[in-house]
Amino acid sequence: MIKIKNAEEIELMRESALIVSKTLGMLAAEVKPGVSTLQLDSLAETFIRDHGAIPGFLGLYDFPNTLCMSPNAQVVHGIPNDKPLEEGDIISIDCGALKNEFYGDHAYTFEVGEVAPEVKKLLEVTKASLYKGIAAFKAGNRVGDVGYAIQEFTEAHGYGVVRELVGHGLGRKMHEDPEMPNYGKRGRGKKFIEGMVVAIEPMTNMGTHRINQLQDGWTILTADGKPSAHFEHNVALVNGKPELLSTFDYIYEALGITSNEEAPFRA
Ligand code: MG
Ligand code: MG
What we know:
The chain has 267 residues and is α+β, with helices and mostly antiparallel strands. The protein contains five helices and 15 strands. The protein has helices at residues 7-28, 37-50, 117-135, 143-156, 249-255; strands spanning 54-55, 67-71, 74-76, 90-99, 102-111, 160-161, 167-169, 176-180, 197-200, 203-205, 211-213, 220-222, 228-230, 233-238, 241-244. The structure holds magnesium ion (2 copies). Residues 105, 168, 199, 201, 232 line the site of one magnesium ion (MG).
């Protein structure tokens, strides 16, 4: 059942989303060769607690850490460890926070030092596909329209859209209805309703869309060992249009990037 949020609840969710946005912004300055994902995880946990929130993933389904840290060929759900990041790596960081009983949940794939041009392209296309999906989250559309928009754009670049993992409704639970696949058919699936809040999160592989899972029961990686990227925003349906609750602005500020990609989806 889809849980609709009223205006007050959407404001609370914006607060949770902003804590995650700021956490990723803080991490943006710390992602560099030599730092371990476990060190970054510890920084994030402290930061979230200092902002009066609770790490959203820690203990959720028994996940052991604050951040899902998925380097290179790992798609999502990687567990932080003490292995240092290396020049040319990419690292997908997925972060959740719980405040005022509502969750924020978003993700960004960072470059570690200088990465290969084809990897940079994968990140650009995956992030662009996220905004294609967000634009399709509007009154009159259905779940399949968002999936279609992401899939069509992604596959036109020859990349693989992961099937087994999907976006989702978000609220008092981390994962609410509906599931939001990154593939689909136009006009299919549940209809969008005013007051819905969803996490849209394309997971895109440079090669095959197929994946494997490590023995740790968590880590998802590409079947062909090629890199994978993951970007995620939280979006509310307000006045029939998609309104971003999360922002990459703190990341861009830390990295000195200028972007107005979020402008069409701002309140
Ligand atoms: Mg997430
Ligand atoms: Mg999510």
